[in-house]
# Entry
Amino acid sequence: MKKLIALLLFPLLSLAQDGIFLKDGSSVKISGDTKIYPGKNRLYYRNPDKRRKSIKYDKLDYAAWEGKLFRTVTDGGKSVGYFLLTDEHGHSLAAFVQNKSKYTGGFHSAYKRYDVAELRAGVISQRISFTNSGRDDNPAKRREAHQMIVRNFAGCRKLLDRMPGGEPDQAVLAFLDELKFTPCE
# Structure
């Protein structure tokens, strides 16, 4: 019961104060000049004039900064990190975006990999992964992600108002490039 109450109050508490909060109850204070960037297995941060530090996801509970909310969830026994985009009574939309690059035939091409997840009570119930490339399966997966967001978060008008118009596969890319938390009412 305590976990359910904490899960329901989580979005309200997390936006009240910026910082990095660990599962053991401790926290790392950050300033407006602190640079925070999630990696594959850990959250990196750097305060001005100090060296870079990191926290493994299995020790991290959540981090809040600049209107963003980053949270860890367990997936297959492993801690993974996601930006929470919205939460409505334990039903959340989360995303993780990675900048990647590929070298082929001496040419460098940059692209982004997107993981979009629907969470129910902190557990991943659906996940869709795609890139911003024009490969055949990516536009279909982006349209599927758009449909998932519109269908499952129809009650969250503020979130859906952030979704640009136009082709669904392109709209979802523009939407996911802004990883700010939007509370539902």
Observations:
- The two ends are 23 Å apart (CA to CA).
- The first strand starts at residue 19 and ends at 22.
- The mean pLDDT is 87.
